[in-house]
Amino acid sequence: MFTDNSRWIRSRKFRLGAKVIQTTSNEANIKEGRSEPFVVKDYRGESYKKHYPPSLNDDVWRLKQIAKDGKFHKRLSLQGIHTVKDLLRLYTTNPSSLLEKVGNIPKRSWMSIIEHVKTCVIDDDETFVYNTAEQSTSLIFNSIYVLVGVSFDGQNYVSPDTLSSDEKGVVEIMKQHAYQNMDNLISVHKTSLSCSTPLACVGVRQFDATEQGLQQLDISTEQEGYGHPYASTSYGDEGLPNHNIYSDPNSVPDITDRMCLLEYVGFGWFP
Question: Which residue numbers delimit the Calmodulin binding protein central domain (predicted)?
Fold first, then answer.
């Protein structure tokens, strides 16, 4: 087996040559020999390859457009974002803050990162519950803080998709309040939760956060060929010739002034 690490530019085709190192006067004249071209395995860039799909515990540079030790990787690391899970969590709770931490980034590069991270499978059992201070209402989040269940009695959880428009509005306010008070989230195991409907099981809505973030940032993504694994390295990831810098997205709504709505509406619609 032959491998090639001799040059940065890949050629993959090589020849073997042989010649006599020492000769004596009694030996016949031996000519040099050379083989026909053959292909060798090329391992350059293996340690920099992107993962398709990425996993939650992958280093963040495994995502497209984030080169290992590149400027985006360094900026994110300085902000404590080291893994795909770290990035997804901040993107779920505050996409504007994530963009601010990434810094000036071409719009196309940002779209590419989001498209790639959306292929991540949320396959762990990490679950969090947020309990309101004055009401018997609980919100359940998966490991990247996507809302996957709501309880109005503290026991049975239903899917957010099953709520009425009024209920969704109030729950959205509660969710944003939870995102502003992350220290109040309680870690639980999802098997300890009682689901009223199958859709309420943790993990069903694993990509709602990224889809919501795309809408908030007014970015339309190209879906053709999306989600298919293929090999790639980080060469040139951060050098796209795109001068359309996207660094001032719509901010996540501040719900401080809207909490009065929560108090006014009350929870009369709770079963």
Answer: 56-120
| 3-state secondary structure at position 260 | helix
Q: What number of CA atoms fall less than 13 Å from residue 45's CA on the CB side?
A: 17
Confidence of residue 153 (pLDDT cuts 50, 70, 90): confident
CA angle 132, 135, 137 (to 5 degrees): 65
Handedness of CA 9, 11, 12, 16 (dihedral sign): negative
Q: Tell me phi and psi for residue 157, to 5 degrees.
A: -110, 140
Q: Look at residue 238 in the predicted model and tell me its pLDDT.
A: 59
Q: Does residue 177 register a pLDDT over 90?
A: yes
Angle formed by the axes of helices 107-117 and 84-93, nearest 10°: 110
Strands 147-151, 138-141: pairing kind? antiparallel
| Cβ burial 11-21 (10 Å sphere, 16+ → b, else e) | eeeeeeeeeee
CB-count burial class (<10 Å; 0-12, 13-18, 19+) for 127: buried
Measure Cα distances from 258 to 63, 134, 209, 248, 269 in Å: 36, 16, 21, 24, 19
Q: Are 159 and 149 contacting, i.e. CB atoms less than 8 angstroms apart?
A: yes
